[in-house]
Amino acid sequence: MRLIMKDRTHLTRREFIVKSITAISAVYIIPDIISKAEASKPLDAEVSPKTKWAINVDVTKCVDGCTSCVEACVDENGLYGFDRPETDSQWIRKLRIKDIKTDKVTTLPMMCQHCENPPCVDVCPTGASFRREDGIVMVNQHTCIGCRYCMMACPFKARSFVHENLTEQVTSAPRGKGCVESCNLCVNRIDHGSETTACEEACMKEGHNAITFGDLSEPDSRVSIAIKTKSSRRLRADMRLKQRVTYSGF
Amino acid sequence: MPQLKKILAVVIMVFIPISSFSHDNEKHSLKGMSKADKLDQCVEPTEKMQKHHFEYLYHQRENTVEKGIRTKNHSLANCIDCHVSHDEEGNAIPINDEGQFCQTCHVKTAVNIDCFSCHASIPRDSLSRTKSQVHSRNTHIESTAKNLVEYYNETNYER
Ligand code: SF4
Ligand code: SF4
Q1: Do A3 and B150 touch (CB under 8 A)?
Q2: What is the C-alpha separation between A24 and A219, in angstroms, rounded?
Q3: Which ipTM value was assigned to this complex?
């Protein structure tokens, strides 16, 4: 709202019309487009490398103290733990970084970075850790033997091991003792046509808009626009893992 | 004596196959009601399902995990959704509980299944979905629209 008011003071007639059309379409048309786009991948179609799921995180918008994305991930995937932070599963966590020179504090969400060259896939002895055609790096828990090599190989500490017997799993996120697990870009809901991951949705609902999810292969997707308009970088780009998760505003 | 052996052999040959497919042509009668109770046939002919359901499940699991195929017919989630029984209050009874759909046959045929150490044994929505259903649709659209407008203003992006 604040932004619209600010703009209105110096709008030309043409801009006013364009902006109102944008606003009206945002309220009435875009939700329709979104619900139509939900049918994009038919349920019986295989995922293809044409789709490139990605996330951009704008650290300047991430708010210190906010953990909405973490809570949303827990709720979405039923990651309820045992109040044992050392061993409880964590697919996304908040990091707090302090610049030693300026004392400037930055917080950012850290999850699986969905590398195009994932070290966790290289080390897995059973092929359970794999990269899906559309770029989602995940664990096939039917073949995971729980050796935890992948946890060791991941430079971002993105994976967790399930140490205890679980009950109360949700239907969309099967998980159990003896397997490794990590962020899978909400694969179940994405496959069923959702346009957004739980963490992005939560961040949007809070009004922070720090997380942007989308399909890189579509130039009009939210994440493509975000990457085009802001400079973004991969963490530890020197390792050449080509992560699909990028960070802006460092 | 050879006579006795023969009889024994016949008895074993007749009874073992019968007991390994415990519910041949026999309707399940379980505690509670399930959606499946009201249907004539499963996603494949009953005979086929009784003998080959695990093959369908294996096939589907590879397709789903590796290729992202989410068709319902042979998916475990859908089996559970349809076959889970509900008590009088409408609460789902875990499908692997004693006397329930999965468990009765597997006990009888001494097959130990491990599906439910990871998979939910009743249909269970994730909490974030339940929460957003509670959210009225209007506030959702409003907030999405507001976010999008802000987003377009900030990025100076015009369609
Ligand atoms: S823990 Fe599982 S996914 Fe990770 S390397 Fe071992 S077998 Fe592969
Ligand atoms: S994309 Fe989904 S699974 Fe990954 S961190 Fe976000 S909410 Fe969790």
Answers
A1: yes
A2: 23
A3: 0.79
